[in-house]
Structure formats: structure tokens, C-alpha cells
Amino acid sequence: MKRALVTGGAGLIGSHLADLLRREGWRVRVLDNLEPQTHRHGRPAWVAEDTDFVQGDLCDRATIAAALAGVDIVFHQAAYGGYMPEITKYVHVNSLGTAQMLEVIREQNLPIKKIVVASSQAVYSEGAGRCPEHGLVFPPVRPVEQLRMGDWQVHCPVCGAVTTTAPTPEHAPIGGETVYGLTKVDQEKLVLLWGKQVGIPTVALRYSCTYGPRQSIFNPYTGVVAIFCTRLLNDLPPVLYEDGEQTRDFSFVEDVARANLLAAESDALDGLPVNVGSGRGVPIREVAEQISHALGISIAPQAEGEFRPGEMRHLTSDTERIRAAGYQPQVDLAAGIGRYLDWIRGQRDVRDYFSEAADVLRRKGIVQRVARA
Ligand SMILES: NC(=O)c1ccc[n+]([C@@H]2O[C@H](COP(=O)([O-])OP(=O)(O)OC[C@H]3O[C@@H](n4cnc5c(N)ncnc54)[C@H](O)[C@@H]3O)[C@@H](O)[C@H]2O)c1
Ligand SMILES: [Zn+2]
């Protein structure tokens, strides 16, 4: 029987992954500190009673060492995510937490057979674009001065022409243009290069926007589907940044769990960063409209020229690499939104935490507004 540690296993992706692994006959241990912003009521009901559940902080050396004992494969999902203002906390949990976990494995010579780490499409700058003149290009992040003028377009780095979006392959430049993105780069690079040094197979899965049942309804800083739902259920308009025409690639959480299982069981992806997505870009405005239609709540989304510096305009994952290894997403956006709504209807305390958070983000400059002429 294979034995797994799922860090962050009480969260959205980790909990679905833990369920899938158990169904596949694995023995699963979960390490999660139940981050209060995500889990306002403590241990969620979906962490089954009989789970080998360690409530503790990944960053605590003794805790992670104990959690790793007797494990074959680590699925490292725990992270601090989204657009929050705490710079130190991102670096501490995501970068240092990962570094220390690797150090413990090496120091104690633990017989770990593979590490699958949750990376993100946030590692890409503007992703890939297509220039009418220069073909496939990788534009740098749009300067904040441009965004302040309300110019949302992405320009060719060679000639400055406006580009159209193209699926972003794994060989696109990475760097991270937000603090979160930067720490996801740290995580994946640490794991991949460390794995090569010590001879342990590793895979970094660059997830696209992932959503589905169990996505926190309390965390106003991350999860656009959850945020739009909680806004609408409170009779408030979803807030669109820029003009709402930016596109994202969405993955249903059960598909992402399957991608993790594939990465663990196949050796085709070892040593690689791997996009996990649908391969389809959807405008954010359309996501808001789909949700309001499905809920039967007709409140138009609101776009008032706010933007988040460092956020990419378009990102669609080029999923050729993972598809070649046998991955096939099974739940499309419409079906997935339906599944999320079925779940959220059964939740109590569906409140709006976004308005307050938005004020904080404005004050800290994480959300800005176009300069008025
Ligand atoms: N959801 C997405 O759209 C998305 C996209 C790209 C990448 N990711 C990555 O996927 C992973 C899982 O994300 P998710 O959407 O399930 O988020 P989530 O917030 O639902 O789950 C993360 C879990 O990690 C736990 N955690 C946080 N800090 C911890 C710590 N110091 N010690 C132990 N546990 C800790 C939280 O309590 C939570 O249960 C993260 O690494 C995230 O960066 C998510
Ligand atoms: Zn060009």
C-alpha cells in the first residue's frame, strides 16, 4: 500500500486529492494548520473522522518531520495564496516552509520516493501572446503606468504591436510578478532542482484557476468563482478588475486531484514543471454572468477601472505535456459551476467578506484605480 502525506489536505485541492488517494487504496496522512482565513469554523466536516490528521504548521520543523515519517510520496499543497498584503507570511510559509521540508528529508535521509508540488500559472508574467508580425512572443508584465492610463492591452516586446492571447507552454519565461507568484516560483524551483541533486523524482504542477466544492467561502482574497458566488448570494455585484475581458483557464478541483495522481504514478512528468488546465480561456465577465445565470440572480457585474498591478491579462494553459502523459479534464466550466452551487447552497454563513478586504487592498496599493483625466 502506498503511503502519502498531503500538506494542506484540509483545503480545496488537498482534500479532494486525499479523498481520491483513499479511493485508490492509498494510506493518507494530512498536515494542515487550518489557516483561520480559510477555515473560520475550525476543522471542516470533509476531513473524515478516521483521517490520519495532523493539525500543525508546515513551518514547524518537528511537526513536518513527524508528518513525513513513514511516507512514500509527498503532495505538497499547503501554501498561503492569493493577493494578500502580508509579504513576510508568503515568503515564510511558501518559500521557507518548502525549503525546510526538503532539508528535513535530506537530513534524516527519509525514503521519500516522489514529491509533487503545487505550483501555479501565477509563475508566468503575461504568458504567451501572438504578434501579427513576430508570431509567438512572451511579453513582459504590463507596466503599472500603462494600467493607470486604462490601457489593458498586451504589447509585443519586439515591435510594440498589440498581441492576441496564445496558450502558454511550460518553456515560457517565469518570474512571478506578485509576491505570491514569486513564492510559487521559489517552491517549484526548490523542489525541482533539489530533486535532481538528491535523486528523488519531483513534479511541479502549475495549476490554472481551480474551483469546486469546499473552496473557502470565507477567504475574500482568492478564488474568483467563490467570491462571485458569495457576492451574488448577498445581493451584491461581482467586482471585475480592468474591464472584465481578461481571460483565465479554469480547472475543476477533481480534475486537479486526478492530475496529482497521474504525476505520482507515471514517471513521464518527473523532473518537470507541468501545466494543469483546460486549455480554454474564459473572460472573467463571462464567469460572473454564468454564475448569476445559474443562481437566477440578475445583478450585473461592476467594472470601475480597478486593477491589480502585476496581474496578467490573459492566461490559457498549453496542456500538451500533461495530455501526452494521459491527462484529460473531465468536468467543464458549466458543469463545475453547477457542482459548486449545489455545494454552496448547503453552507451556512455565506457572507460577503470581499467589501472589507477590497478596502484593505486599496489602502495597501494591491488594488489600484485608473487615473482620471
Ligand atoms: N485554487 C487555485 O486556483 C490554485 C491555483 C494555482 C495554485 N494553487 C496552489 O494549490 C495549493 C492548494 O490550494 P487550494 O486552492 O487548495 O488552497 P486552500 O487555501 O483551500 O488550501 C490550502 C491549505 O493549506 C493550509 N495551510 C496554509 N498554510 C499552512 C501551513 N503553514 N501549514 C500547514 N497548512 C497550511 C490551509 O489551512 C489550507 O487548508 C496551494 O499551494 C496553492 O498555491 C491553487
Ligand atoms: Zn511584434
Folded structure, characterized:
This protein has one domain: 3-Layer(aba) Sandwich (Rossmann fold). 34% of the residues lie in helices and 18% in strands. The protein is built from eleven helices and 18 strands. Helix 2 packs across helix 3, helix 3 (87-107) runs parallel beside helix 5 and helix 8 (284-295) crosses helix 10. It is globular, with a radius of gyration of 20 Å. Nicotinamide-adenine-dinucleotide (NAD) binds at residues 7-8, 10-14, 31-35, 38-39, 57-59, 77-81, 93, 97, 118, 120, 207, 209-210, 216.
What's the overall average pLDDT, rounded?
Answer: 95
**CATH architecture verdict:** 3-Layer(aba) Sandwich
Q: What is the approximate shape?
A: globular
Oligomer: single chain
Distance N to C terminus: 65 Å
Kindly provide the name of the CATH class: Alpha Beta
Give me the Rg, rounded: 20 Å
How would you concisely characterize the structure shown here?
The chain has 373 residues and is α/β, with parallel strands linked by helices. The protein has 11 helices and 18 strands. 34% of the residues lie in helices and 18% in strands.
